[in-house]
Write a structure and sequence with these properties.
- By secondary structure, the protein is of the alpha/beta class.
- 45% of the residues lie in helices and 17% in strands.
- Helix 1 packs across helix 6.
- The radius of gyration is 14 Å and the shape is globular.
């Protein structure tokens, strides 16, 4: 890894505190120690993502819940993928929706991975652990 390569910052946009803790715990368990910035709504997440603080942070990986209190994850994904600096950031959608149309919309808008949150805790934990392993080997382009 070149010295100038900055560590990836994980931006988690998830309004459910229990899910957020589960995601963080399993990402850590997979050996990923990157900084995780947690936002509970789309407004604050987009404010951060479009800020100079985010552009100084280095490459970003975005974990995005679709069902947020103030806007949909689809709306956020649309903004991210139209944004000059953010459009190359990998986006992992985590949601309880397994609607095929919604899934296709996410891929059409440019999400990289779509994970349905099963009600079953162990299945969800396994999916997040696999996500953690994926993050640990993924090369995220610097904008």
């Amino acid at each position: 890894m070149p010295n100038n390569q900055r560590p990836v910052v994980i931006v988690m946009i998830e309004d459910d505190g229990g899910h957020a803790r589960l995601i963080e715990k399993n990402v850590r368990r997979a050996g990923v120690n990157n900084e995780i910035r947690h936002f509970v709504d789309g407004t604050s997440a987009l404010a951060f993502l479009q800020s100079s603080e985010a552009s100084a942070a280095g490459p970003l990986l975005i974990l995005l819940d679709l069902n947020l209190p103030d806007m949909t994850g689809i709306d956020i994904l649309g903004v991210i993928k139209k944004h000059e600096r953010l459009k190359r950031a990998p986006v992992v959608v985590l949601t309880t929706t397994d609607d095929k149309v919604e899934i296709q919309r996410c891929y059409d808008l440019g999400c990289n991975v779509y994970i349905t949150k099963p009600v079953d805790y162990d299945t969800f934990a396994t999916a997040i652990r696999q996500l953690g392993l994926f993050i640990s080997v993924m090369q995220v382009p610097d904008a």
